[in-house]
Amino acid sequence: MAKTLYLLRHAKAANGTAMMQDFERPLAESGVADARDYGVWLKKQEAQPFILYSSALRTQQTLEAMDGDWATAREESLYLATAGDMLHEIQSLEKRDGCGDVALILGHNPGLHELVRVLSGTAEEGPREKVEWDFPTCACAVLQFDVDDWADITPGGGHLADAWVAG
User: Fold this and answer.
1) Is the peptide bond before 127 cis (omega within 30 degrees of 0)?
2) How would DSSP label each residue in 97-151?
């Protein structure tokens, strides 16, 4: 059975204040709207992904604004994780209750954009143009893998099949 992986960057966050830590930044109004739009798009894909998300406030609020009924798990290690750290989490998805053949990682740049590049061995032209040079807030790359187990996902083994960018 093939695996499908959605890599989603959190929606636009509000500017922080001198007293606010980066981890605590909430979504901007435009970010809430973008996350809602993404949620509508994801539901149209008829995918029921297991969602693994960063513990930062802006990723939690992105997930809430997506307004879906998905199996989820909060993962502390995804906050500002490197591509390698996220790949390790992906390869461990089989151990998570509720995770099937479709998963979504909701996290942060620069690690997410690097992960898209690392995992994409091949790509459709349209999606490549959307995310090759930039991975803005609330951007999503959809990768497909011809593997039976999440642990078998390796660099260059994915096909960038689709992409969604807010706006």
Assistant:
1) no
2) TT--SEEEEEE-TTHHHHHHHHHEEEE-HHHHHHHSS---TT-EEEEEE--SSGG
Residue spans per domain, the chain: 3-164
What does the block give as tokens for 9? Answer: 């960057």
CATH number of 3-164: 3.40.50.1240
DSSP β-ladder status, 158-164 and 120-123: parallel
* Rounded mean pLDDT for each run of 10 residues along the chain, 167 residues in total: 94 79 89 97 94 96 96 95 97 93 97 96 88 92 97 97 93
Q: Is 45 exposed, middle or buried (0-12, 13-18, 19+ CB in 10 A)?
A: middle
Beta bridge partners of 73: 52
Name residue 72's amino acid. Answer: T
46: left (phi over 0), alpha (psi -120 to 50) or beta: left
Q: Which of 125, 113, 103 is nearest to 42 (CA)?
A: 103
Contacting residues for 94 by C-beta, under 8 A, at least 6 apart: 149, 150, 151
Check: CB of residue 104 under 8 Å from CB of residue 50.
yes
pTM equals 0.95
Q: How far apart are CA 71 and CA 49, in angstroms?
A: 7
